[in-house]
Amino acid sequence: MVEALRALAGRVSVDVDMLTESLRQARARIGQIKVDGARPPGSTLSGVLITEGAAGPSWMVANIGDSRTYRLDSAELKQLSVDHSVVQELIDAGAVVSSARRQVPFRNLLTRAITAEDDQPPDVSFLPVSVGDRILACSDGVHGAMDHSTIERLLRTNRDPQSAADELVAMSVELDGHDDMTAVVVDAIDIAGASLDQP
Q: What is the DSSP letter of 98?
């Protein structure tokens, strides 16, 4: 998956067609994995690319599955992605309240993923990049282990992005510890000469 997406790195402008082609290649690579009768492999994807749009630099947010992408700014922590899971569909239908999602026994059952068999499209959205934005991309093992306010507090109190990511993973292990736990934190500190250091 990483190798298939690496082709997008370093490009000034990335569009949905480029992302779709990279995901097609990722699916082809997944299809080459030998499983000997076991369940076919798959993956989730959530994160951002920076692309140059008509209004300037933009976050291109892409998501398939139940990994999540958040943006923290001076006002709030906002979830940018929507989980592709059965429990999210139940929440959207009003059958389960969001605060009870961790009690649903099949909460990890996905409705969309990256597999060799399915050609399911990602959700893609674009947001302008602002100096001071902090982006968090994380697996469900991280966001499922703690509530929204705890994630926000950890992101606000740890200024170094790598340390913030490490702390999120460490707390997830401490609180839960049974699922994949991955976190990446990226800060927008300078955009076309507009730096955080400027008044």
A: G
